[in-house]
Specification:
8 helices, alpha+beta, 20 strands, 412 residues, binds zinc ion, 6-stranded antiparallel barrel
């Protein structure tokens, strides 16, 4: 077993120890694994992610600092430190370990904040925490509850922050399993160890935990609740503590300021401004649709009046360079409904290249089949019914010629 120094002092960022075993990179996931007799490095466990830092072999120059990129717990209880090094130090080497203090402080703020928050949800609503996750950006707990509303979230946040502001002492205690039975732990661990490590937040929370914690709740800084989400086991609550809360609030403010700037308004008016803009967009879109409908109707009437019947049919062939598929489809509908003897072969090349073939009801051709033939030549795809078909081609070149080819066949 590795002697875990952080169990007793989570603020110990430097320590000395001895390498008891080295597993070369070739044998494990490409990184050297180093075991020590004692360590202050926290291995990923209990929802808290591992520390990073450096290991310096004793007697070497200060320049020889081997980066510890990950720390993990082995099944036998030993701690393995994964290091970056061309050649790993040898077994028996004395080392000096250095924890990355900023990362450790952040983890302590998040983990202690989690204990306070979980206890707040129990005290207020008897909602138990069933899991804890610490990510790079935010943390989350899963609450065992069928429902969770905004008011409850705000109440829990308020109580949790009151506990932070009261700066209650946070103590580490070691007790026997037997004694722990009567202490009313919020969380009882599944372990067969004789001795339990407890984190005691004075008169607020007592739980068994192996994590690194602050000395007083004031060091958590603050607790900011974020998104909530229904999950299989209950409700997930995302949160950030301390410096992360400040960073998150700063990012939110920057985002809101940018949005407010677009409206030349105050950040608090953003939702109302967005709502107003969306309404305007909807109104503009609707009037645009009306105008297009009218335009299609007028254009259809003009095209029909300009086209002389041939064998009793009107054949309209046109490529619109400034229109899209929606417009030529509308136009095809108008053309084939306004008169009963129309075949329309239309193309549009404004954004994507589109084709629409349509005929008045009762006409004898097969638009779907004709379109497929044209598209096969153009390298496009599409289809439809006997009276109406549409499709797309990869480029505008050749569309006009393809339509004329079909028209020539229909005239023959
Ligand atoms: Zn914990």
């Amino acid at each position: 077993m590795t002697d875990r120094l952080y169990y007793h002092d989570p603020f110990l960022y430097e320590f000395e120890g001895e390498i008891t075993e080295v597993v070369p990179a070739a044998e494990i996931n490409g990184r050297h694994g180093v075991f020590l007799d004692r360590t202050a490095f926290y291995p990923t466990s209990g929802g808290q992610v591992h520390d990073t830092g450096w290991i310096s072999p004793e007697g070497g120059s200060d320049a020889v600092r081997l980066r510890v990129t990950e720390v993990a717990e082995e099944e036998d209880g030993r701690v393995v430190h994964y290091i970056e090094a061309d050649k790993p130090p040898e077994r028996g080497t004395r080392i000096r370990g250095l924890i990355d203090p900023a990362r450790r402080r952040d983890h302590m703020q998040q983990h202690s904040g989690q204990h306070v928050l979980s206890a707040a949800f129990i005290r207020l609503f008897n909602m138990a925490t069933v899991s804890f996750h610490m990510g790079d950006d935010y943390c989350s707990i899963d609450l065992d509850t069928p429902s969770l509303n905004t008011e409850q979230v705000e109440q829990a946040e308020l109580l949790a922050n009151q506990i932070v502001q009261e700066n209650r002492p946070v103590e580490i205690k070691f007790v026997t399993q037997e004694k722990a039975q009567n202490l009313g732990l919020r969380k009882t661990p599944r372990t067969d160890k004789d001795e339990l490590r407890l984190i005691d937040i004075q008169d607020f929370d007592l739980s068994a935990c192996g994590g690194t914690h602050v000395r007083g709740t004031g060091q958590i800084g603050c607790i900011l609740l974020r998104r909530t989400e229904r999950v299989r086991q209950g409700w997930r609550v995302e949160f950030v503590c301390g410096q992360r809360a400040v960073t998150t609030a700063r990012r939110d403010y920057t985002t809101l300021t940018e949005a407010a700037g677009l409206f030349s308004g105050h950040i608090w008016d953003v939702p109302q401004q967005v709502r107003k803009s969306l309404e305007e967009v909807r109104a503009v879109r609707k009037s645009g649709e009306h105008i297009l409908e009218e335009l299609a109707e007028l254009q259809a009437a003009r095209l029909l009046s300009e086209t002389a019947p041939f064998n009793g049919r009107k054949l309209i062939v046109h490529v619109f360079s400034e229109r899209d598929l929606a417009f030529i489809r509308l136009l095809a509908q108008k053309l084939t409904r306004l008169e009963s003897n129309v075949v329309a072969l239309l193309g549009a090349t404004s954004e994507q290249t589109s084709l629409v073939f349509a005929q008045s009801k009762g006409m004898p051709f097969d638009m779907g089949a004709l379109l497929k033939e044209s598209l096969a030549e153009l390298g496009g795809r599409g289809g439809g019914t006997k009276d109406m078909a549409q499709g797309g081609a990869p480029r505008p070149a050749g569309v006009k010629a393809a339509l004329e080819k079909v028209a020539a066949r229909l005239r023959a």
